[in-house]
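User: Some background: our group keeps a shared notebook of sequences we're curious about, and every so often someone picks one and asks for a predicted structure to add to the entry. Today it's my turn. The entry only has the sequence so far, pasted here. Could you supply the structure so I can complete it?
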Amino acid sequence: MTTWDSRPAVLAGLIGAGIQASRTPALHEREGAEQGLRLIYRIIDLDPLRVGVEALPDLLTAAERMGFAGLNITYPCKQAVIALLHELSPDARALGAVNTVVLRDGRRIGHNTDGSGFAEGFRRGLPGVARSRVVQLGAGGAGAAVAHALLSEGVGLLSITDVDAARATALVADLNVRFGAGRAAAVVDLAAAVAAADGLVNCTPVGMAKLPGTPLPAALLRADLWVAEIIYFPLETELLRAARALGCRTLDGGGMAVFQAVGAFRHFTGIAPDAGRMLRHFAAMVQPGAT
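Assistant: Of course. Here's the predicted structure to add to the notebook entry:
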């Protein structure tokens, strides 16, 4: 005899490119089960679908029609999705990027939990580090969130570089409007900026499993520089490996991954998740040999 599962059901998903290895589905589904929900979390990967950001309108419409409670949004869609939404949270509007879309009553509401996710991971993982001068690599959607978080956490001067110089310049201008003139600057000489910095944050995709390497020459690192990543697959990137070999204090991308998921779970379900439990689950998933 089949027993009917009477737990409340929630359907959510993740839209992005190259996301088959994401730990986000397991994080949400496990916490949903702990909270008494049948939470089903689907990956919507643009790469195997052979589409790009131009498919976002159709994907959002399909999700609405299938009863999704919400979607997480990742590279390369965090900025492109904005034009398709009805409403933005204050954080998403300030950042110009969305990583969480709530679908409710025919409306699409964009949020950003990347900034708060990075800030919480930073506070826990690098307590007490010097933060007079910090260099940030990358000014995309996640980079914008991290930059706001760093300045909110007391970084004195944030120097930003990006392969798209215009994107870095635009982010710097936005930051100086929000936090005060002179709090952010575009990098002119990367070697000089890193030499003068207390810390370095990588917000580029370089170092991901599908894009191996380091986002800057490892020779620029030194022992008294702290180094942070937002990449979590792999958890130890080539940049972090080189930094740890020198004795640098380091922060991997696991904390940001978990704490952005904590915020998204709350938006999707209306339930406050257990952050400590989600951290433990993430740690178990990324242990060597874990599946």
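Suggested note for the entry: The CA atoms of residues 230 and 253 lie 4 Å apart. The chain has eleven helices and twelve strands.
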